[in-house]
Specification:
The protein is built from 14 helices and 14 strands. By secondary structure, the protein is an alpha/beta fold. The structure holds adenosine monophosphate.
Length: about 400
């Protein structure tokens, strides 16, 4: 069976076609600027040249329609006709407390996705638009929702509750949910395989360090804690997001900078983090380069970044009572040699010792700990699409 994996954002649709007989990716692509003048579709069929199509598209249905046309194109398509697609897997950011695993989409599931609009206003509405568009165009196959929050649903109240009046949890569902769950799920399972231990007997700390970043503490096959919370703003310092701050700063700056709630939300999500702190960029490559050429703010920004990650490693080491391995993944985690080295520096008291020579690799699945390190240090390229394709395939059977 071939599975179509769809990740619909507010103005973009990412897709992959995966052949489940050998889990190979037949094609992947991105429709960008959906509903905005200047729409483009970039399609990359396996083993063939990239194709770029420029065509203004009014909405997600038109975007998906173009994707399907491209997939069956005799020249650069990867299937003969749509009947080859046996199921569609959709990335959905928020499943609230209703879903601890992936599900076949029906009206009830769509209602839950809609009920979560309130707590995931930027993500769930476009995710649902993608589902509606695909269901309209492919009504005869199963559609599966794979939630970013699902893997974290094993967290206990002691880790997911905020110290706020309990009614706001009951009434408004204010609690910690965690995100990037599909990535944490994939790399922690791979880590268990690399450790040669059953997943439900491992203690693992996963570091998904990308433009958005989060960590998770996983014990006995369950997420015990994670750094992102009610929204993806909590936790680590990110490209443009502040991560943890004193909440009183929000009221203080709303007052000083005369920000309304929308502007304040934008400020802490888009203007803060590494971009705000360094004044250079949200991209760690630019900040590393600036620091190298003597930019003091870039150096300080990097130190704040390392400190926050180290702090959470310590936090999770304490909660897990030690761990078998830490795992680096996502853009920064897979490629940032200096970043990994600095995060792991001076953690030998915790049993974390990096072999800095072995660490000089990018995007490879490898153990970069020294032979005598108590804790293994893995680099594992993430593959969220494969998790979505596998769950979709399993549920579509
Ligand atoms: P992601 O969100 O997982 O796609 O990660 C994107 C981020 O990875 C970019 O914003 C960069 O900051 C980061 N990145 C990519 N390559 C490197 C590298 N060689 N060193 C440090 N950071 C990198």
């Amino acid at each position: 069976m071939k599975v179509l994996v769809v990740n619909a954002g507010s103005s973009s649709i990412k897709y992959q076609v995966v052949d489940m007989t050998n889990e190979s990716v037949l094609a992947q692509g991105l429709v960008d600027r959906v509903g905005i003048p200047g729409t483009t579709l970039e399609h990359k069929p396996e083993g063939k040249d990239k194709v770029l199509i420029k065509k203004d598209l009014p909405d997600h249905t038109a975007g998906m329609k173009l994707v399907l046309e491209v997939l069956v194109n005799p020249e650069y398509g990867v299937i003969k006709d749509m009947s080859e697609i046996g199921a569609v897997g959709h990335r959905v950011v928020h499943g609230g407390e209703d879903f601890a695993e992936s599900v076949v989409i029906d009206d009830k599931v769509k209602k839950v996705i809609k009920d979560c609009f309130d707590i995931a206003p930027l993500h769930n509405p476009p995710n649902l638009m993608g589902i509606d568009a695909c269901q309209e165009l492919m009504p005869n196959v199963k559609h599966v929702a794979v939630f970013d929050t699902a893997f974290h649903q094993t967290m206990e109240p002691s880790n997911f509750l905020y110290a706020l009046p309990y009614e706001v949890y009951e009434k408004y569902r204010v609690r910690r949910y965690g995100f990037h769950g599909t990535s944490h799920f994939y790399v922690s399972h791979r880590a268990a395989e690399m450790l040669g231990k059953p997943f439900d007997q491992c203690k693992i700390i996963t570091l998904h360090l990308g433009n958005g970043a989060s960590m998770a503490a996983i014990k006995d096959g369950k997420v015990m804690d994670t750094t992102m919370g009610f929204t993806p703003l909590e936790g680590l310092v990110m490209g443009t997001r502040s991560g943890d701050i004193d909440p009183a700063i929000v009221f203080f700056l709303m007052d000083k900078l005369a920000l309304n709630t929308t502007e304040a939300n934008n400020y802490f999500n888009k203007k803060a983090g590494m971009l705000g702190l360094s004044g250079v960029s949200n991209d760690l490559r630019d900040i590393l380069e600036a620091a190298e050429s003597g930019n003091e703010r870039a150096k300080i920004a990097l130190d704040v970044y390392y400190n926050r990650v180290k702090g959470y490693i310590g936090n999770y080491m304490a909660k897990l009572n030690g761990c078998d391995c830490i795992v680096f993944t996502a853009g920064v985690g897979e490629n940032g040699i200096d970043i990994r080295e600095n995060v792991c520096a001076d953690l030998d008291y915790l049993g974390i010792k990096m072999d800095v020579e072995k660490n000089k690799v990018r995007g490879k699945e490898v153990d970069v700990a020294t032979a005598d390190s108590k804790v293994r240090i893995f680099i594992i390229p993430t593959n969220e699409e494969l998790v979505i394709a596998r769950d979709t395939y399993r549920l579509a059977q």
